[in-house]
Amino acid sequence: MTKKIPRRAARRQVMILVPSVPSPGLSRAEKDLYKALTAVSGAHDLLCVPEEKPLSARLDEAALASRGAQIYSFSRPPEEAVSGRVKTLITANPGLDVIGFAGLPLLRRHLVDARLFAPAKSYFAVLGAADIDALRAPGAGGTAPGEADRRLLACCDAVFCPDPRGAELLLRRFGARPHRYEDLPKILAQLRCAAAGPEKLGLLYLGKPPAPGRAFCQARRKALDRRLPLFSAVNRAVLSSPEDIACWAVSAGNFTACAGLWERLANAARVFPSAGLVLPFKAEFSGPAASRPPAAAIEALSLARQGNHTEPLLIDDLPLALIRTEAFRRVGGFDERFLSPSCAWTDLGLRLRQAGFAAVTADDAVVCAPKGRPAPPSDIDLLTHKWCAEGLKVMELLAFELGGRQP
Fold first, then answer.
1. CA distance from start to end of the chain
2. How much is the pTM?
């Protein structure tokens, strides 16, 4: 009789941005941070992101320089690069729901940007003795320190402090209720995301459905009626869908998806709650394997583009898309007068923008699809005429791009 081994509970994913990789053998502040990170990694899956190069690299450079070697070292990356790195890691790890910042400078530089990008995540701050001294110092002109810092600390779901005196200052002057370093694993386990995003997702497809990942295991799947035009079928399915389906993924072509595409699309819907339409980046490959590029190539391209999100003016032919049901109903769905998919999707995106929603291209979710058919001149004329009130110059550019980008 074989003994059943109990399944290990899923560990929570935690990301923390640190100034540099701390060392256990240097200053007190680095020792404290090293112990805190060790405690977190013992109970959670920890993703540690240094803003600067690791300390070991700097020590190696110093050792070589002491022996006469000239070291040409890159300076610290600009704030925009670090912020982009944080966004990349958020989009690349859909299960990541707790994000931390070690030190007041990192909190000031990156918390607001990260919170605007991913408002549903939980955020925490790990402050050291130097950070407490900076908060204790008077502001400009001898005024009391930091209303801006008060707002930053209020944005944190938890604050950690190394000593009781610092905790008393945070509570009295900033209204924060700090915790001890030793309580990091326990408190992080209690943090909950504000909004988990759509719980139920719909999947509309023509023909054989794509293989969904975990995010779509509980999705409601529905094949589009081939007897109807594509846009009429999508309108009928989405406009009459139950209220509990927050988003519908529309797969209208034979797409080759990178690993984790469905999770990334669902994560993009959570990251962009104001987006009525989320579109992955459509990759184009050339060469012998252009018809069916290897999954590894698509995954590599996806990794290279992660963290980049734009709002498109022109939507390509037959995209794989994630439609928010509320937004789609508000604008009345597709305009069924169009024959060309590219014109119909572009018109839908423009009407969503007019209604206050975004049409977001999620470059971190890469797919490969066959090239579409050219848009007929009648559709380009209809699109230009329909939107000429928004500005003839913009529509002339749109019509030129639409005609020029078709094969």
1. 65
2. 0.59
